[in-house]
TrEMBL record:
Alphabetical list of Pfam families matching this protein: ADH_Fe_C, Fe-ADH
Species this chain originates from: Kosmotoga arenicorallina S304
This protein's name: Alcohol dehydrogenase
Organism phylogeny: Bacteria, Thermotogati, Thermotogota, Thermotogae, Kosmotogales
Gene Ontology molecular function: alcohol dehydrogenase (NAD+) activity; metal ion binding
Keyword Repeat attributed: no
Listed SUPFAM superfamilies: Dehydroquinate synthase-like
Keyword Oxidoreductase attributed: yes
């Protein structure tokens, strides 16, 4: 395969709305970024992260040295959890305001970087809070500059305009999509992912699989989003088993990270639909549920539901996982069971009943999918009509294995 000929230590620039430095050793580019910020008059930064992402990955030492050498003061907020809340974002914003932060640095996976994007908006709109932001009570047009240092290979948030947070009192987990929260700079360094735990390695990769499954099949899908989807699934199917067996394999981490980044670009262009719209209620009700696991649980039933509408696309992009598909509507059950088997072979055997949901929860889940702010936009992009009955059927078929 051509991948073996690529020098993974050659840090290249993946250019889009965000300038992303990509490759082993890319973390050292924070030195150049800090110098550039200093030239632009930036003297204070707030770092939004969690303790593990900041210290265990080794990012802390490099970032703090770069800021120190550039003469930039910084403060650190580490109380971001998986499925971050609006309360956490408000506390971080207050810290940023009192410190006088002029730039926001997100270090970690989707939770810290999404939170950093949210803080960057609220530092500009000082009379607003995170609940107002996520309930879409106002439309932001500006944000403080954002630097995203990514430590997982799943979300793609380092190169896109999306962010997610939970409003626990309402069981909401809405999403944002604003041009002002494209990071100015991003760093994708596979070496930061060698310490990613086994399950997070799986679940973040499945997040990327879902991003492209949706982006390739929305009503606004394009040849570009489909092309990126095909390559994402090929790379993940090839390199995920290798990364699970050999966590220190930087080649495997490199291509999983690249797959995640292009998946982020794919859904930045093609948008999302069912799996994300239906997963958000799951992890809103159960914040300890890993986002990627929730997506994995729903994926087979979602593909089964949409396959008759877009069989040619799904047959092509899923060829590495379910080979021999002809791209005809009658294969829906076959491809869904094939995807489920692939997930089971990876050790992802959980279904909704295994993570604490039952038949009795389905009406509440359907209600949240239909009424949570922003999720209606995702559902409107699905290739089939997102009726209450369709949503209910997907949840119901995800309670237990299809096979």
């Amino acid at each position: 395969m051509w991948e073996s000929k690529v020098d993974i230590y050659n840090v290249f620039e993946l250019r889009g709305r965000t300038l992303c430095y990509f490759g082993v050793g890319a973390i050292n580019k924070i030195k150049d970024i800090a110098e550039e910020l200093k030239k632009k008059g930036v003297s204070k930064a707030i770092v939004i992260t969690d303790e593990i992402a900041y210290t265990v990955t080794g990012a802390k030492d490099v970032v703090e040295e770069a800021f120190r050498n550039a003469g930039i003061e910084w403060t650190v907020f580490t109380d971001i959890t998986p499925n971050p809340t609006v309360e956490q974002i408000d506390i971080a914003t207050d810290l940023g305001k009192s410190f006088g932060a002029e730039v926001v640095v997100g270090i970690g996976g989707g939770s810290p970087i999404d939170s950093a994007k949210s803080v960057a908006i609220l530092l500009e709109y000082t009379d607003k809070d995170a609940t107002e932001l996520y309930e879409q009570k106002f439309v932001p047009e500006k944000a403080k500059p954002i630097i995203a240092i990514n430590t997982t290979h799943g979300t793609g948030t380092e190169v896109d305009r999306f962010a997610v947070a939970s409003i626990l009192e309402k069981d909401y987990k809405p999403a944002l999509a604003y041009d002002c929260i494209y990071p100015t700079y991003a760093i994708d360094d596979p070496a930061l992912m060698k310490t990613l735990p086994y399950n997070q390695t799986k679940f973040t990769a499945i997040d990327a699989i879902n991003h492209v499954t949706e982006a390739a099949t929305t009503l606004v899908a394009s040849p570009y989003s489909i092309l990126l989807a095909k390559e994402t699934i090929r790379l993940i199917s090839r390199y995920l088993p290798q990364a699970l067996a050999h966590p220190d394999d930087l080649v495997a981490r490199y291509y999983l990270l690249y797959a995640s980044a292009i998946a982020g670009i794919s859904f930045d262009n093609g948008l999302l639909h069912f799996t994300h719209a239906l997963e958000h209620p799951l992890s809103a009700l159960k914040p300890d549920l890993a986002h990627g696991l929730g997506l994995a649980i729903l994926l087979p039933a979602v593909v089964k539901a949409i396959y008759p509408a877009v069989p040619e696309v799904l047959a092509e992009i899923y060829e590495p996982i379910v080979p021999g598909l002809k791209g005809i509507p009658g294969e829906a059950d076959k491809v869904a069971k094939g995807i489920e088997k692939w997930l089971f072979d990876l050790g992802i055997t959980e279904k909704l009943v295994d993570v604490g949901f039952s038949e009795n929860d389905i009406p509440k889940l359907v209600e949240l999918a239909l009424n949570t702010p922003s999720l209606g936009l995702l559902l409107s992009q699905a290739p089939i009509k997102a009726t209450e009955q369709t949503i209910e059927k997907i949840y119901r078929e995800s309670l237990k294995p299809l096979a």
